[in-house]
Design goal:
By secondary structure, this protein is α+β, with helices and mostly antiparallel strands. The protein contains 9 helices and 20 strands. The protein has a 12-stranded mixed sheet with strand order 7-8-9-10-11-1-2-3-4-5-6-12, covered by helices on one side. A 6-stranded antiparallel sheet has the order 15-16-20-19-18-17, sandwiched between helices.
């Protein structure tokens, strides 16, 4: 084990791309406020990172979170493998309709619209190629068998291209930086940011040794809820020892088994990507649909059709972030067992008959009856986020167990 070095000393080591005078850009990091929250909830005594993997200077959890917050990686390229297992049943094609509806899309929309297309990341295993050159140039490609979907941000232009259907979705943005409204979390950094927002006094945060990820030396940050009743077991984040960039994110459920989310680089380079990486011209004969700055209004495409836009899909959020992720919801409780609740205004239970259609039949087939002081309802369970819909039209949802949902509904009465 190397002698103890302060986090500043570790961070002083420079990685590739040591160019002087490079332009200042939006940081690829968690808000600095996270560091202040974490300081009050985790031990400050340095933990030995001595798992037998890379021999790195010891570092405390607080120092490691500070390293993530200071990380300013602006240029990279690499490959990310992401696996998501929420334990959803096979839906026989209905999942496409549900995901499209959640993204605000429709059957006649562009297959290249990122807000509908990238909802594929909420299930299964996928390979992504990613590249970035500052806040105004990024590319993410979803690699499939015999086809590829690419999302390219180059200056004010945002392009989505589906090679299988030869369709293009184009929009412009006046905002600098990555267009978060157009895509769900996809990289380890994206997931790590959301997980660190859940760190409070209901959380244990420690350094859990070291690891090698994509050929890079990394520290492992371990986040565990201190509360019972949550479906989150633990979150492990592998943090690059030099740059502070999260290289791998793994969320395991309290019920055991495979990870719910496992996203990590299999290859990464911090060299400047070629300018051609971010250049895009619609292929000949492609159908191009025009949008504007993430607009939610319909836009006519060049082929005379129409595409519709709506709220983007999102990958699962851990802990209290799952509850806070629902717009307009009231949050009950604290920390990892917090539950979001809102009134749908739809009394009479689940949708059925002509109005309910496939959705009503699907929900009825996978739901589990529940009752309590709140009345009666149906619980819909995944391995992470669960929801209770009461017969009077109220919804309770969070990364909590069925018993915790019922308890929250009872207490709200």
């Amino acid at each position: 084990m190397a002698p103890y070095a302060s986090d500043d000393a570790v961070g002083a080591e420079r990685d590739e791309d040591p160019r002087p005078g490079r332009r200042k850009a939006a940081r690829y990091a968690v808000p600095v406020a996270v560091v202040g929250v974490a300081a009050a909830t985790i031990g400050l005594v340095p933990a030995l990172a001595d798992s037998g993997d890379p021999d790195l200077p010891r570092i405390s959890a607080q120092q490691l979170i500070e390293k993530i917050a200071r990380s300013d990686v602006q240029r990279l390229s690499g490959t990310v493998k992401i696996s998501t297992d929420l334990g959803l049943p096979e839906l026989g094609g209905l999942e496409d309709k549900l995901l499209s509806g959640a993204a605000g899309g429709s059957g006649d929309g562009s297959s290249a619209d990122p807000r509908a297309r990238l909802t594929e990341l909420v299930s299964g295993t996928h390979t992504l190629r990613v590249a970035a050159d500052g806040p105004d140039r990024q590319k993410l490609s979803l690699v499939e068998s015999g086809a590829e979907y690419s999302l390219i941000h180059d200056g004010k232009d945002v392009w989505g291209y589906d090679s299988k259907s030869n369709q293009v979705h184009h929009s412009t943005t006046a905002r600098s930086g990555r267009d978060r409204g157009a895509e769900p979390p996809a990289t380890p950094k994206d997931f790590a940011e959301q997980a660190l927002k859940s760190v409070d006094d209901t959380t244990s945060v420690t350094v859990d040794g070291t690891a090698q990820v994509a050929g890079r030396d990394a520290y492992k940050l371990l986040i565990r809820p201190r509360q019972s009743g949550t479906t989150v077991g633990a979150i492990s984040i592998a943090v690059d020892a030099r740059t502070g960039l999260p290289l791998k994110f793994t969320l395991t459920p309290s019920g055991g088994g495979a990870a719910v989310v496992d996203a990590g680089f299999t290859r990464v380079s911090f060299a400047e990507p070629a300018a051609s990486t971010f250049a895009f011209t619609p292929p000949k004969g492609a159908k191009v649909t025009e949008g504007t700055d993430g607009s939610a209004r319909p836009e006519h495409d060049r082929a005379g059709g129409t595409s519709r836009h709506g709220a983007p899909g999102h990958a699962p959020r851990p802990g209290g972030e799952a509850a806070r992720g629902l717009s307009g919801a009231e949050v009950l409780g604290k920390g990892w067992t917090s539950v979001a609740t809102f009134d749908t205004g739809a009394h009479g239970g689940l949708p059925t008959g002509a109005k309910g259609g496939d959705l009503g039949g699907f929900l009825g087939s996978i739901g589990e009856p529940a009752s309590g002081a709140f009345g009666k309802g149906t619980v819909f369970s995944t391995r992470l986020v669960n929801a209770l819909i009461t017969d009077d039209g109220r919804v309770y949802a969070g990364a909590v167990t069925k018993d915790a949902l019922v308890k929250a509904a009872d207490a709200a009465k």
